[in-house]
Design goal:
Belongs to the URM1 family. Pathway: tRNA modification; 5-methoxycarbonylmethyl-2-thiouridine-tRNA biosynthesis. By secondary structure, the chain is mostly beta strands. The chain is built from 1 helix and 7 strands, in the order E-E-H-E-E-E-E-E. The chain has one domain: Ubiquitin-like (UB roll) (Roll). Helix content is about 10%, strand content about 30%. The longest helix has 12 residues.
């Protein structure tokens, strides 16, 4: 079996969107097509918690990660929608990502 015969690591293609100012942390791009590993660093099925870590390590270009995460989860004041449903209805960060998912992060806190 040659090197080219080795199976490629499985990936999940999803769409991630940022609004309410969060897009500034992600190269001022609101919508991102992302292919991330189907398994996290522990071999578990990729979930939203892994997605948040992946975004911080691989997509976020801004150094102010504290505006997006606090204590290894999405910070308070950021609404997360999974396929247009509140993530609280989907198991929050434990939701296992599926091909074609749309994950939307909305900052609800704005200065005045």
């Amino acid at each position: 079996m040659g090197v080219s015969d080795a199976p490629a690591a499985e990936e999940i293609a999803i769409t991630v969107e940022f609004t309410g100012g969060l897009e500034m942390l992600f190269s001022n791009e609101r919508k991102h097509a992302i292919s991330l590993p189907a398994k996290d660093e522990n071999g578990e099925t990729s979930n939203v918690a892994y997605l948040v870590r992946y975004l911080c390590q691989n997509v976020m270009r801004d150094h102010r990660k504290e505006l997006f995460v606090l204590d290894d989860t999405v910070r308070p004041g950021i609404l997360v929608l999974i396929n247009d449903a509140d993530w609280e209805l989907e198991g929050e960060d434990k939701y296992e990502l599926q091909k074609g998912d749309n994950i939307l992060f909305v900052s609800t806190l704005h200065g005045g």
